[in-house]
Amino acid sequence: MVLRNVRAGLCRAGLCRAGLLGTVLRQELPSFSSASSPSVPPQPVPPLEQTLQGYLRALEPLLPPDELEHTRRIVEKFGRAGGLGQSLQRGLKSRARHTDNWIADCWVQRAYLESRQPLPVHSNPAISLPKRDFSDWRGQLVFASKLIAAVLDFKAQINNGLPAEFMRGSPLCMQLFPLLFSSCRIPGPKHDHVAHYGRARRSPTHITVVRNYQFFQLEVYNSDGSRMTESQIHAQLLRIRSQSWKTDKEPMGILTSEHRHTWGQAYHRLLKDKLNKESVRTIEKGLFSLCLDSPVMRISDAKYASRMAAQVLHGGGTFSNSGNRWFDKTLQFIVGEDGSWGLLYEQATAEGPPISTLLDHVLEYCKKPDPKRAPLVPLPMPKKLYFYIDRDIKRDIEHAKQNLDILINDLDVNVFNFQRFGKELLKWHKLSPNSFIQTALQLAYYRVHSEVCPSCDIASQRMFRGGRTEYIRSPTNQALRFILAFDDPNVSREAKLQLFREAVEAYSALTDQTMKGQGIDLHLLGLKHQAIEEGLSIPKIFMDTAYGLATHWRLRTGQVPTNTDSVMCFGPLVPDGYAICYNPQADHVHFSITAFNCCEETHAETLALTLDHALCQLQELLQPTV
Questions:
Q1: What does pTM read for this prediction?
Q2: What is the largest distance, in Å, between two alpha-carbon atoms of the chain?
Q3: Do domains 6-112+419-622 and 124-412 have the same CATH topology?
Q4: From CA 569, how far away is CA 256, in angstroms rounded?
Q5: Residue 595 belongs to what H/E stretch?
Q6: Cis upstream peptide for 475 (omega within 30°)
Q7: Sheet harboring 411-418: ordered strands across?
Q8: Nearest to 349, CA basis, from 537, 198, 148
Q9: If I label 622, which of 11, 307, 455, 537 is the partner at 20 to 30 A Cα–Cα?
Q10: Is the per-residue pLDDT at 330 higher than 80?
């Protein structure tokens, strides 16, 4: 099917940040030796011909025959014997022999650190967790104390050596876990970098607590090195509350919500003052941040889940809790007075699977009573962080407030719980739950927009040393055939069911291929990066219009399977796109859908209703009632 209006979207937004344009810079993250994951193999370099053929197959459902043929000629020339592609492939294989991971640093740089978009909505994922059974500040502080203790307990396990995680019998790379703590993204004029303080000679022993836009340094270890107990932490949080009544304090955290170039300039001005530099460094070095949010406006039960996901994602706006965030911080735990809570994280050093492991640990820990009595020792007063705000910084804050409110008002968030069935039914029918949902998403999108579009699902590459993530591309040819047949009354139910199973199986095959390190997007990025490293012109395959169209991800998706009824939420990658996250449970599935209100073509609620209807029809296809 021909993509409509995509070129206009490309002009508005530029190519997707993972679209492989521009100079590739070195990722500034601490490197780990292969000894940290000795049993995990290195990331393979896929065969060139396999990647190029996979790329062409991915284009087939998206392009008309004439455009596809034009691109096919470019791809064949690139990959022919003695051609540029073969030369770049040899360079990649040489790089792979001499590095732990030939692509991870480049991927993180391109996917995250070079992006100039604001971190809230555009980048940082939020995870909203089931509401706790309190509704005032007293319960808020009690739970926050246990939450802090739980996270510190997880960090202790990391320090002592986490047991290896496995997938399909193979060990997974554990290198990301130590980077979760005492890390922070630092803005730069052209690209950001990540500062990690966890391996300094004197590792940080504090967290940052923020309430009513005021930041506090809270030491969470006693003088003998032992972790503070929950009752000790609770006493300290009471002290912080007593020092953080609402005032006319400026919401300094709002600055971190800006366009990265703008924030980089403000960051430079801010750090010229010694007091500001000390306060900023304290936030950056902290193990993690805790955001104690004030209550938000009560709304209907039907919209509560959407509101809570939005609160964790961006704070609700400058008149709500957005000033309680430091969006550059790797880990921010949010606890509201109404029982809402969640986690917001920055992706350059954190990804879904390690975050899920952390949250599973927190949830299990929170079921247990406080295991320790508080020692009878005096505790130091939490240190309030102060800022000197001159006229220029005041102006920066006002601009950031305006821009963030515009961004928040533009985001449409729809969270819903599909309760007709869950993953157990799909497994009973011998169907992959993720592949089933992906096919349903393609069907729902087609019904709303009368076309299919470039879509990306996220696959972990932790099976390989230093591995990060890779895209699984959809739609497939099989999915398109099924979509076109499903609403055709002349096609029999048996034929539709067969086409549906073929579509699901095709996506499962793509997933397996990608999980084995044989995806196409990392390889294409590596080839382009290799050309730049060798001082060559950008190969024509990456300058082709089809490549721009195929990386304009109008459907950004992600499965976040956890052991609880949580839901992840983030914004679309492009102005005319959607972002869809889902968490399949045994008998239900949680979904979050976001879109931008400024685009007249997209509407989160419309897609949500269409998806709900499509899922019900697919159940009927599998289990006819008559």
A1: 0.92
A2: 79
A3: yes
A4: 19
A5: strand 589-596
A6: yes
A7: 411-418, 589-596, 578-584, 555-559, 455-460, 469-474
A8: 198
A9: 455
A10: yes
Other CB atoms within 10 Å distance of the CB of residue 615: 21
**Confidence check: pLDDT of 22 > 70:** no
Contact (CB, 8 A) for 339 and 134: yes
Q: Are 468 and 619 in contact (CB under 8 A)?
A: no
Confidence bin at 547 (pLDDT 50/70/90):
very high
Lookup: tokens for 531: 């050309």
- Nearest 10 degrees: Cα torsion 393, 398, 403, 408: 120
pLDDT in tens, 418-427: 999 999 999 9
pLDDT of 33 higher than 70: no
**Domain-wise residue ranges, the chain:** 6-112+419-622, 124-412
Q: Give 384's strand partners.
A: 216
Q: What secondary structure does DSSP assign to 381-446, as a single string?
A: PPEEP-----HHHHHHHHHHHHHHHHHHHHEEEEEEEE-S--HHHHHHTT--HHHHHHHHHHHHHH
Give the residue from 503, 505, 446, 508 showing the smallest Cα distance to 476. Answer: 503
pLDDT of residue 372: 67
> What's the one-letter identity of residue 124?
N
- Cα separation values, 364 from 29, 54, 489, Å: 31, 42, 50
Q: Residue 300: its pLDDT value, please?
A: 73
CATH architecture of the domain with residue range 124-412: 2-Layer Sandwich (3.30)
Contact 197, 30 (CB under 8 A): no
Has residue 21 got a pLDDT over 50?
A: no
Amino acid at 516: K
Q: Which residues of 442-470 are buried (b: 16+ CB within 10 A; e: fewer)?
A: bbbbbbbbebbbbbbbbbbbbbbbbbbbb
Cα 151 from chain centroid? 20
pLDDT the model gives residue 15: 34
Task: Give me the amino acid identity at 74.
Answer: I
Choose the CATH number for 6-112+419-622 among 3.40.1190.20, 3.40.50.720, 3.30.559.10, 3.30.70.1350. 3.30.559.10
Give tens-digit pLDDT for 443-472. Answer: 999 999 999 999 999 999 999 999 999 999
**Position 36 pLDDT exceeds 70:** no
pLDDT digits (tens, 9 = 90+) for 568-588: 999 999 999 999 999 999 999
Q: Is the dihedral of CA 324, 331, 223, 276 positive or negative?
A: negative
> Do residues 486 and 443 lie in contact, with contact meaning Cβ atoms separated by under 8 Å?
yes
Under 8 Å CB-to-CB from 535, ≥6 apart: which residues?
A: none
Look at residues 429, 430, 457, 426 and name the one whose alpha carbon lies nearest to residue 441.
457
